[in-house]
Amino acid sequence: MAIRSIARGCGAYLPERIVTNAELAAKVDTTDEWIQARTGIKQRHIAADGQLTSDLAVHAANRAMEMAGVEGKDIDLIVLATATPDHTFPSTATTVQAAIGMSGGAAFDVQAVCSGFIFALATADNFIKAGQCKRALVIGAETFSRILDWEDRTTCVLFGDGAGAIVLEASEGEGPDAQGILSTHLHSDGRFKEMLYVDGGPSSTQTVGHLRMQGREVFKHAVTNLSNVVLEALEANGLEADAIDWLVPHQANQRIISGAARKLKMDTAKVVTTVSSHANTSAASVPLALNVAVQDGRIKFGDLLLLEAMGGGFTWGASLLRW
Ligand code: UT7
Fold first, then answer.
1. C-alpha 215 – ligand 1 centre gap (Å)
2. Domain 180-322 classified CATH 3.40.190.10?
3. Whole-prediction pTM value?
């Protein structure tokens, strides 16, 4: 029997402060109607002054560990996806490691922007399958509010802050019916870096910089790349789209989510959407959405989930996971 990573628990955290579209419309030249019609976003959560990415991540991690019935000392790997780390170094993962009382094992960050959680999940899954760890915390955590140009209406209305986490554990299983991660599929194409990037960084400008995006171009690539990677994941497991119980997509834009569901001929009732209340939380968006549907009882033991995301780089990926 092959080693397989099974999900033992999940958790999430959103900062208390909610910013509505109307509040943004008072600051930049936009309207609630435009934002809702073009993106589906109604509001976003924004971290308080001094509240760091690691603070959000620790809350999410503690909740995931509580559901899994484990403590920090039981974890031997943290893979944390973020594009908005507390500091250039050390990694945000090591800050979380200390905060949850985990002294052994390894902790590091991965950077794949909005696809970050899928990349982190794939990394942890491969460590588990290689026998290099037994129990991993996979976290997506972001404070995108800190890298937004609050005078640029084309980007500042789209993003929010938050964190989500999942506990993976080594088990045994084979085939699509067994619990756990069936497969992960990652892609990147660095030729498109100018379409979605931050115009600062330690080596280039010695500043943090602001997010810049050619939205329409990113949109087109997102629809194509996500459709392809989703089909790749299904094919790799000999499954058809009707086998999926829940699509848990990256939450960037309701129109992208609906497009992906249409291509799969999936009933929209089987798609978990949180973009209206969370906006785009980058690496946190998939685990935040997953957590909502687990907590409200939609996702049940044994359900087959398809997770997918696309982000700057470009990077994109998908994973099939039997909950
Ligand atoms: O998570 C990483 C991946 N990111 C994404 O997936 C984002 C992908 N892109 C998108 O979701 C969409 O392209 C956006 C939501 C960013 C934009 O929607 P769009 O339908 O592609 O609009 P557009 O960029 O073509 O802009 C249409 C118009 C423009 O005006 P003109 O040139 O037609 O006069 C914009 O200036 O809307 C204008 N506009 C706005 N108007 C009011 C752009 N932003 C705003 C705004 N409020 N906030």
1. 6
2. no
3. 0.98
